[in-house]
């Protein structure tokens, strides 16, 4: 649904140049929820704005739904953007318009007739749970309600792709959870493809099927969440399941092997550690870890202490690898 190849964007001033996006490749499949994770200045927002050509890249190509946007002239690009909705961190609502008026504005831009606009606005407000607030103004809404208006407005022209620019970072945790539930529901009910940028690991953990970690304008890793969890040394796996290292320091040495293991899918609910202890008559200790349900899979990560030096545990470690465990 979204295909990006060799994308590069540089901002230039008199004194210096800043490369915001540096040769990024990205594939987001139809119906996928893809999260780009990174800190401020990583290039996430520029990447997102290049997808709908709010920023013109210096090099590379962007295609959405099979249509390459990079070289489209203004009028054709304006029409193509109707198929791409966008929601913003700070809502970007028109304060002088009601909830219904804000949603209708997106349809006015497309030239939809009045009767069609009225019916579509009612449908959208029902979809996001705001039918009773149709006549309210943005100043009368909570942050979560404002974001629901933003989502309804983004969906007005029936786009197949939704871009989310830090949509939950201005919200409290409870409201964030409600917005993420709504996005996941829209993804499933409408077959909506969602590309979101965030610095919040909770967002990736809750709704993303695939993700990329971005730093200094580049992807340092990218793939399905399940695949990245099984990738040795994955930053995403480490940050999704941070392990307490304090017990490791006290346990290290003295002929003890410290090992971190990651499992996903059906294996996450299997008694792997118990099997390990029985099979090798080993007094395995769990130092830290957890099992959680992600958007697309069950996953678990633990730090274990096995008695004996690493060479004494070679068979046990090989057994874990054969079970599909990532060490």
Automatic annotation (TrEMBL):
InterPro entries: AAA+_ATPase, ABC_transporter-like_ATP-bd, ABC_transporter-like_CS, ACT-like_dom_sf, MetN_ABC, MetN_ABC_transporter-like, NIL_domain, P-loop_NTPase. GO terms for molecular function: ATP binding. Signal peptide: none annotated. Pfam families: ABC_tran, NIL. Residues 2-241 form the ABC transporter domain. Keywords: Amino-acid transport, ATP-binding, Cell membrane, Membrane, Nucleotide-binding, Translocase, Transport. SMART domains: AAA, NIL. It comes from the Bacteria. The keyword Transport applies. The keyword Flavoprotein does not apply. This is ATP-binding cassette domain-containing protein. It comes from Actinoplanes sandaracinus.
């Amino acid at each position: 649904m979204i295909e990006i190849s060799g994308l590069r964007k540089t901002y230039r001033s008199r004194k210096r140049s800043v490369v915001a996006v540096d040769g990024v490749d990205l594939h987001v499949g139809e119906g996928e929820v893809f999260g780009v994770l990174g800190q401020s200045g990583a290039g996430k927002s520029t990447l997102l704005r290049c997808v709908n050509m709010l920023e013109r890249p210096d090099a590379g190509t962007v295609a959405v739904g099979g249509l390459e946007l990079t070289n489209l002239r203004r009028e054709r690009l304006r029409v193509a953007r109707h198929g791409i909705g966008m929601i913003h961190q700070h809502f970007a609502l028109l304060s002088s318009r009601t909830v219904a008026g804000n949603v209708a504005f997106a349809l006015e831009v497309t030239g939809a007739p009045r009767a069609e606009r009225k019916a579509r606005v009612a449908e959208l407000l029902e979809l996001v749970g705001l039918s009773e607030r149709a006549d309210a103004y943005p100043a009368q809404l909570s942050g979560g309600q404002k974001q629901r208006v933003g989502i309804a407005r983004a969906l007005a022209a029936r786009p197949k792709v939704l871009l989310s620019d830090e949509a939950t970072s201005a919200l409290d945790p409870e409201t964030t959870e409600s917005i993420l539930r709504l996005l996941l529901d829209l993804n499933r009910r409408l077959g909506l493809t969602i590309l979101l940028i965030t610095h919040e690991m909770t967002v990736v953990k809750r709704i993303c099927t695939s993700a990329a970690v971005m730093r200094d304008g580049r992807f340092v890793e990218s793939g399905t969440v399940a695949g990245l969890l099984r990738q040795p040394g994955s930053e995403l796996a480490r940050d999704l399941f941070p392990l307490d290292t304090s017990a490791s320091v006290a346990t290290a040495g003295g002929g003890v092997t410290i090992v971190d293991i990651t499992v996903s899918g059906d294996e996450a609910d299997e008694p792997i550690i118990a099997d390990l202890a029985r099979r090798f008559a080993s007094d395995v200790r769990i130092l830290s870890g957890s099992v959680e349900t992600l958007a697309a899979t069950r996953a678990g990560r633990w730090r274990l202490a096995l008695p004996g030096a690493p060479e004494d545990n070679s068979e046990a470690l090989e057994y874990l690898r054969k079970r599909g465990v990532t060490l």
